Amino acid sequence: MKRYLSAFWRENRKFLALLLTIVFFKSAIADLNSISGRSMQPTLLDGDKVWVNKLAYDIRIPFTDFFLASHTDPGRGDIVIIDSDAAGKRLVKRIVGLPGDTIYMRNNTLVINGQPADYEVVSSGEDSLIIRERLFDYSHEAMLSDAFPNRISRSFGPETVPEDQFFVLGDNRDNSADSRIYSFIPRDQIIGRSSSVVFSLDSDRNYLPRTDRFLAELQ
What we know:
Elements: H1 2-28, E1 30-34, E2 48-53, E3 58-60, E4 67-70, E5 79-84, E6 89-97, E7 102-106, E8 109-112, E9 115-116, E10 118-124, E11 128-135, E12 138-145, E13 156-160, E14 165-169, H2 179-182, E15 185-186, E16 190-194, E17 197-202, E18 208-209
């Protein structure tokens, strides 16, 4: 057995070293994340594959959840990837509230620390609106829809975001399970930030590529 393993290592060491390097890279540095569902429309579409920068905020021991160092904190407007204990799965959402912020929502109107967001209609369809939400120093597009009968999630708070936690929302405000459902997101469950789509496949068109979304930057 020892002789067999030695021969196997000699014959395959380059491949195994490359495989270990790839696994290490995906664990500690960067990865790809598939978007499944519509909770981040119009920013992200079902079938998008996004780049995940795992060094955006922290340095962790590879293959573990242990921190070596934190060099910056998540910021308002960041699109983050979350290993959510409350949801029991990985989430992709946008950070809206920072630690210490007081969050208040009524009928999808967002108010943070007494400052209401400004809204501009970008486009409209039969049962949905694309709006641009502006608050403080960032803006992004969001979607509102009349296609969903549940209106409970359109209101929230007022509640204050605890220390080392964040309030996140999906850009598709009427079709997203986020902090309105799962409460605030602990800092250590945020594993990275996404700022671009790598490629995209359209599930409604036999998974044909959406070439216009390849390498598209995210707002």
